[in-house]
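*** Residues and shapes ***
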Amino acid sequence: MIGFDNVEANGHIALLYCHSDAAGTGVASGIVAALIDHAQVAGMPDLHVEASKLARGLFERHGFTLAHRRDFSLNGMPIDNHRMIRSLW
């Protein structure tokens, strides 16, 4: 498997995966483009995601904007991600 996604009915992109062998090939970009198309057809007003530092640029290239950075701890390990939103209207 090269990549997959999961978008919830409320427009939350819960998961986007792309195998490291496919990095830089456009696979992840194609997945995001398909997510956007699906959400528009489904009548969703927007999409939102908690993107990693690595994924932030991918989502920005597809019109997502930064709402805010989230800093938190998971099992005692400090991590961060970026809440991003893309209007579909």
Q: What stands out?
A: The two ends are 32 Å apart (CA to CA).
